[in-house]
Amino acid sequence: MTQSPSKPRLVIFDVDGVLVDSLAAHLQICSDKNEEYGLGLTIPDAAAFRKLVRRGTRISPMKNLFIAVGFPEKYAEKATEDYRRSFRDKYPSRMFPGADAMLKNLRIAGCELGIVTGNVKANIVATLGRTLELFRPDCVVTEDELKGASKSDGLTKAINASHVSREETVFVGDQPADRDAARATGVTFLGVSYGWGITEEDRESFPVATSVNEISDCILNTTSCSRMNS
Predict the structure, then answer these.
(1) pLDDT digit string, tens, across residues 36-68
(2) What are the Cα distances from residue 225, in Å, to 79, 180, 191, 222?
(3) Residue 47 sits in which domain range?
(4) Any idea what DSSP says for residue 221?
(5) Strand 188-192 to 112-116 pairing
(6) Boundary residue ending a domain (90, 108, 128)
(7) Whose CB among 113, 164, 167, 230 lies 3.0–4.6 Å from 10's, allowing a Cys bridge?
(8) What is the value of pTM for the model shown?
(9) Mind listing the pLDDT tens digit for each residue in 125-178?
(10) Which residues contact 211 (CB under 8 A, 6 or more apart)?
(11) What is the rounded distance in angstroms from the CA atom of residue 215 to the CA atom of residue 18?
(12) Of 195, 9, 175, 226, nearest to 93 (Cα)?
């Protein structure tokens, strides 16, 4: 694992499952589209879905999530188009309590903030609202910019825009795929155990925050997250 400096200069966040509590909404749209298309699938509940993600099943961007729960590809493509049009209005999500304060703490401490997500920009804007002003605009990379490219490509894009070194960058995510993207890019990874696919057991491999509030503690006070420098 890439060694983290005592005080990272750039902190990049995944959104869903890290800043935004949206798993239930994503599973609901899967259930609704399954019924609308008459597919007869059994959509997993949150616990089963987390196990799916933990096994390494690809769920980003959204087409892959539909495929992961059983949608045939042509229906996954159709559902993804519906998702782009309707998700922000029909399936509203909220930020996790304390996320806004945590982000402000990082900014006060001098950290630049970025986003790399497989979600579309319209959903991010609708959910984060004015909190989005805390992030560098040139370090916000959504599926609209990725266009199917990897999160590692997104991390590289954000890092290059910020002119901050990889050694001074932390990526905060909630899936094994996020960890893999961080490793491929050469940045430190901080997982969260309250999201879509990481648990406290993963502390054997990388640092894990168990709450939103603990994220800033792990990043700014390395003794709060014992493996940040390992």
Answers:
(1) 999 999 999 999 999 999 999 999 999 999 999
(2) 40, 20, 11, 5
(3) 23-90
(4) -
(5) unpaired
(6) 90
(7) 164
(8) 0.92
(9) 999 999 999 999 999 999 999 988 899 999 999 999 999 999 999 999 999 999
(10) 98, 194
(11) 10
(12) 195
Picking from 3, 38, 4, 16, the residue whose alpha carbon sits closest to that of residue 178 is: 16
Q: Are residues 118 and 208 in the same domain?
A: yes
Last residue of a domain, one of 90, 120, 135: 90
The total number of structural domains in the chain stands at 2
Tokens read off for 207: 């640092």
Structure tokens at 70: 């059983």
If asked whether residues 28 and 102 sit together in one domain, one would say no
For tokens 């901050």, name the residue. 164
> How far is residue 18 from each of residues 5, 23, 60, 73, 208, measured CA to CA in Å?
22, 11, 14, 28, 12
Which of 35, 104, 105, 37 is closest to 73 using CA atoms? 37
**DSSP string across 140-174:** EE-HHHHTT--HHHHHHHHHHHHT--GGGEEEEES
Q: What is the 3-state secondary structure of 63-109?
A: HHHHHHCCCCHHHHHHHHHHHHHHHHHHCCCEECCCHHHHHHHHHHC
